[in-house]
């Protein structure tokens, strides 16, 4: 089950003025009851083939016919539900089956399995084995559709005023639209806040990477309250440099050193790779930019004629590689690589590997959101030596951090 965003929890606490644990439990019980009620209504939608107040898509002479009351038991105790009925009596409830009054665990199991990338067939089999209940693919879709408002709320939540570091990358998928298979990019933005904690700021589903789309993402961050970003850590993504310079002109751009090395090594013969990579260590381990350039020129003298493209890519991108060299080891460890966001992508691939093609953008968005919530639950520690990192940044970016530390 996905975690509720902190901003939503804060708003709930603010609105309800809880005074003790009992009041919190009572609130959760009511919320749980409302969720089950929504699922029951969704179940009847699937059974009849059309949603309430959507007669345009009605393809049956059967109709809704009120509700009957039923008291059920759950992990939140007992409560009363209104079980929806159809006029012909053909609808067979599955979420709360006839004669069943203990519903502990069924509803959260569906979303939990979906969040872990299981196919609707696998979810059907799991629920049937555990509870003896048939949950169709349509029902799984209806259940997970209930988290769409939660996704929108998370995607539009206010953000912090400043992020010292922001990592940006895209991961690619295929979706089916009007009978055609189309490419989609999931644009992921991960921020490190002033306390040194990581947070996924948003996930945007769009067409293949472009400066226009990235600019839209960055402008959305500004509209959600992000006033300043000290450094963007990125791979060589199409159009990203131009978009950053347009949206946050004071920010530095640091290209991932690891990705740059990989790109260089593609041009090097396997027999020379070990010696070449050993010589390159003198470049990216240099104490400052001046020494790094000297080592790069030495490398060029030795290997440039044989592997010109491997060296040229460093020269062409030096403006987004060189910021790295002015920082101490504590900061370099953070900006050296975009592995943190690649780790998020690995989790995304893990839960989406069963789906080669998604039926819609919404389907992809739901699964990535649930996976992101599971990833962030594990981020309980801030970056190591963060106090030293922040002290360095406060000096190097004089005047840009101080007002946010008060």
From TrEMBL:
InterPro entries: Transposase_mutator (IPR001207). Pfam families: Transposase_mut. Keywords: DNA recombination, DNA-binding, Transposable element, Transposition. PROSITE patterns: TRANSPOSASE_MUTATOR. The keyword DNA-binding applies. Belongs to the transposase mutator family. NCBIfam families: transpos_IS256. Required for the transposition of the insertion element. This is Mutator family transposase. It comes from Defluviitalea saccharophila. The lineage of its organism: Bacteria, Bacillati, Bacillota, Clostridia, Lachnospirales.
């Amino acid at each position: 089950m996905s975690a509720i965003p902190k901003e939503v929890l804060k708003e709930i606490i603010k609105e309800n003025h809880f005074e003790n644990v009992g009041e919190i439990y009572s609130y959760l019980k009511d919320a749980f009851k409302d969720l089950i009620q929504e699922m029951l209504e969704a179940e009847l939608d699937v059974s009849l083939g059309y949603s309430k107040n959507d007669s345009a898509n009605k393809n049956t002479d059967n109709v809704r016919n009120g509700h009957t009351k039923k008291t059920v038991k759950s992990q939140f105790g007992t409560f009363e539900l209104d079980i929806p009925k159809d006029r012909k009596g053909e609808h067979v409830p599955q979420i709360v089956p006839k004669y069943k009054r203990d519903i502990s665990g069924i509803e959260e199991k569906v979303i939990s399995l979906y969040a872990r990338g299981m196919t609707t067939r696998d979810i059907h089999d799991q629920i049937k084995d555990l509870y003896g209940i048939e949950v169709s693919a349509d029902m799984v879709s209806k259940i997970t559709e209930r988290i769409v408002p939660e996704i929108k709320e998370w995607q539009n939540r206010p953000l912090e005023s400043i992020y010292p570091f922001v990592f940006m990358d895209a991961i690619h998928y295929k979706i089916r639209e009007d009978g055609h298979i189309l490419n989609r990019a999931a644009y992921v933005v991960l921020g490190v806040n002033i306390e040194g904690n990581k947070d996924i700021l948003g996930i945007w589903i769009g067409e293949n990477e472009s400066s226009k789309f990235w600019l839209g993402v960055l402008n959305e961050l500004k509209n959600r309250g992000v006033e300043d970003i000290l450094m963007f850590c990125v791979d060589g993504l199409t159009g990203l440099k131009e978009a950053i310079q347009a949206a946050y002109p004071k920010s530095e751009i640091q290209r991932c050193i690891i990705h740059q090395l990989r790109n260089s090594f593609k041009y090097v013969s396997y027999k020379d790779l070990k010696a070449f990579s050993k010589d390159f260590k003198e470049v990216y381990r240099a104490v400052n930019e001046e020494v790094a350039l000297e080592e790069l020129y030495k490398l060029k003298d030795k290997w440039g004629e044989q592997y010109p493209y491997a060296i040229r890519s460093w020269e062409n991108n030096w403006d987004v590689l060189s910021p790295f060299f002015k920082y101490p080891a504590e900061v370099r460890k953070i900006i050296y690589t975009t592995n943190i966001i690649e780790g998020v992508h690995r989790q995304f691939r893990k839960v989406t590997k069963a789906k080669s093609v998604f039926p819609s953008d919404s389907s992809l968005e739901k699964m990535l959101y649930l996976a992101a919530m599971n990833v962030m639950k594990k981020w309980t520690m801030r970056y190591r030596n963060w106090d030293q990192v922040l002290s360095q940044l406060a000096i190097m970016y004089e005047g840009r951090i101080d007002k946010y530390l008060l």
